Amino acid sequence: MKHKSFLCRLTAAVLLCTLCRNGLTAPAYAADETAELPARYDLRDEGAMTSVKHQYHGTCVLFACFAAIESNMIKKGLADSSLDLAEQHYSWFTYGKGRPDDPDDPLAGDGEMDGLNCYTHAASYWLVTGTLAAWKGVVPASQIPDCEQFVAIDESLRYADIAHLQNARLFDMEDTDDIKRAIMEKGGMHIGYFSIGKPEHYSEYGGYYQSDLTGSEDDDPSKLDGGGHAVCLCGWDDNFPKEYFVETPPGDGAWICKNSWGPNTTAGVDGYTYISYYDRSLSNPMQFDMEPADNYDDIYQRCGGLFAAYTTSNRGWVYSNIYTAKKDENLTAVSIVTHEADLPYEISIYALRDGYENPRDGELLAQISGTEHYAGYHTYPLNTSCTVPAGQTFSAVVKTGIHPSTTIFMDRNPDNSGTSFYLTYNENGESSWTDSTTLNDHGNVLVKLFTKEGTAVSEQNYHDALYRKAVSAQYDENGDFVITDKEREEAEPFIRGDLNRDGIVNAADLTLLKQLMSGSDRTDLCLIAGDWNGDEAINAEDAKGILDFLLQRES
């Protein structure tokens, strides 16, 4: 488990507060799947894009991803349009000095150490996802001395993120309505395309279209003058005229994209390019969904960001990471990566017994399942209170569905042999468990767990079921089965006995209490007010107490 130092926590908190000092709130808009999409939409019109940057070396993917991240943070009220994240932070702590100095960091020994050559490394959207998922990369450029000089970055800034990656979703390029609604709701996306290597192929209106690559098996990019490029997809214009392109596409319409060749490039207008809907090279639209850096208190992980893929055919995967609790922990969420769309999954958390023989050898603490529509990185909240005491060894076991081809991601971490395992299965049964760290060029599997400090909403802490329900309704605002000090401080005040919150305790409240005790599932009441005598139970004694109060007699 990675514990942030006090300095790192303080630095990140100060940075986040600085960005939010103007009382930023998330826009009220949320995409309605039934609503008609506008003919034109541009995130710039609502101030949800940052300034146009100039990429260094072959880092277009990195800049496209970070532009999308900045846009998402603005849409969610975590920043404003002045935000400028340091792409250099990603480069340095992924390729330059990927391995932490702290020997107790679970990612110690994991990562490349290429020094200042890191700034010549290209990226991929998967690798950006991996680094962000390790709680690195989201740091403002203003906080890194001499950032533009491509220097070594101080180790104290490794985990100084002002936001954490919650999800990264890879969209189907053919499902344009889904892409458009996602942009309106959560901001820009990374997107790739084939760029002809001549500025004159971009029109004076910023239009771009090429027909050399069509997406067929006969495509051969090596024979063409150009190469792959990535930009930030930030809107669309259904009526952008086909005459506004150098090469005329079959019809009107274009995606609005923020480029990374500076604001004065001739390949676009003010740094933005309009790519025709009919350009068949458009691919891999990925959107990053960020959360405040304090959404969880700690992370249990063994993957630092550099993925290696491992694929099986006509079989499903079962894979697991094993951890040991450094202190009493409330496990609240788990994250995985899916390479395929519409992939069924089941995630199980086990408290392993002493001398366990495999990652399932213990008590099942929690289990969630579903089908993930998008390929990408996903964080799932657990559906029950899940606590482990200090020193307890526990596992997260992921089971995927069977696809014609299913890929999982691993990351080399040679110092943790015996902590990651996998097997495959089909309708005839399962293979035996294999230590994934023994594979060449592969290592720990990617499955992470997240913790929250506070009081668990569990039977152990709250024995009475009705009171436990009341405590959850009153204080557990985000439904993660943990009540934090902040949630208690911000909870709405209540008067004991005043179940309907009308400011007085009367016969109506007594009737409501009796209904609750008889099994009513009303959610519009102040349930915790039913604990009249404050003994952390809601029962007949509370009803008697309210009755005695109404009759003005001693209980």
Instruction: State the helical fraction.
Output: 10-25%
In CATH's first tier, which class of the largest domain applies? Alpha Beta
Number of strands: 24
Task: Say what the CATH topology of the largest domain is.
Answer: Cathepsin B, Chain A
Main sheet overview = 13 strands, mixed
Quick overview:
This protein is α+β, with helices and mostly antiparallel strands and 555 residues long. The protein is built from nine helices and 24 strands.
Could you outline the blueprint of secondary structure elements for this entry?
Elements: H1 6-19, E1 40-42, H2 60-75, H3 87-96, H4 125-133, E2 163-170, H5 176-186, E3 189-196, E4 207-208, E5 226-237, E6 254-258, E7 272-276, E8 283-292, E9 298-300, E10 308-324, E11 329-338, E12 343-352, E13 362-372, E14 375-381, E15 387-388, E16 393-400, E17 403-411, E18 420-426, E19 429-430, E20 434-435, E21 444-445, E22 447-451, E23 455-456, H6 465-475, E24 482-483, H7 485-490, H8 507-517, H9 540-551
Parallel strand pairs: 4-7
Antiparallel strand pairs: 1-5, 2-8, 2-14, 3-5, 3-8, 5-6, 6-7, 9-22, 10-16, 10-17, 10-18, 11-14, 11-15, 11-22, 12-13, 12-16, 17-21, 18-19, 18-20, 23-24
Helix pairs in contact: 8-9
